[in-house]
Amino acid sequence: MPKIVDHDERRDQIALVACRVVAENGFDQATIVRIAREAGYTTGMVAHYFDTKQDIIIAALRLILRRIEERLTKPATDLLTVLSEALPVDEQRFIECAFWTAFWGQVSADKKLKRINAWVHREYMRLFERCLSEGWPVWAQLNAATREQVLRSVVTFINGVTASAVASQSDWPAAKQVEQLRLQLQLLHAWAQDTIAVPSKKVSAWTSR
Question: How far apart are CA 209 and CA 202, in angstroms?
């Protein structure tokens, strides 16, 4: 009886290998031949699932986003624990984040990747907004403008730590990443509380200093 092949699983496997190849060798060196070899397949087998290298990269992006969503929506005791799931605190997350940073370097020169990146960014923001709304009690008391600022600050900070850790992994061990995120959340919480207690004009003046 012929073996039943799970094609979705095989596509994910190839996409996951592509993440590692890009993370270890860079975007330009991550050829279909290399990805196929690392996955243990022929180039013909990979071509059966993906027409181009760009298609593999897009599949890898979707896979990473799905994994991030699974991590950010699983039960957790506090907001810091949830948001730490998005940081490169272990080997697999580091590979995924290194892939992200390599991808960002390609976006400006490719219109299709720009569109894909815009979609990924919207999904990314949606996930973090959900985390804040469910894990931060003060969130319900904030006006829309303050929520937007907090959300963008959190995402910008996590992206910054991600890029720093990928560039210099030894300088950013997991504990340091989490501790810096803790500090950022504390500062944002204090600022957000001020926006509730202080009239908006005074808050605007304070933030412009």
Answer: 11
Question: Which tokens is 148 given?
Answer: 């937007």
- pLDDT tens for residues 114-171? 888 888 889 989 999 999 999 998 899 999 999 999 999 999 999 999 999 999 999 9
Q: From 2.60.210.10, 1.10.357.10, 3.90.550.10, 1.10.1040.10, which CATH number describes the 7-201 domain?
A: 1.10.357.10
Amino acid at position 133, single letter: S
Alpha carbons 139 and 151: distance in angstroms, whole number: 10
C-alpha distances in angstroms, 13 versus 54, 89, 124? 16, 22, 22
Indicate the helix (H) or strand (E) that contains 21. helix 7-25
pLDDT tens-digit series, residues 53-63: 989 999 999 99
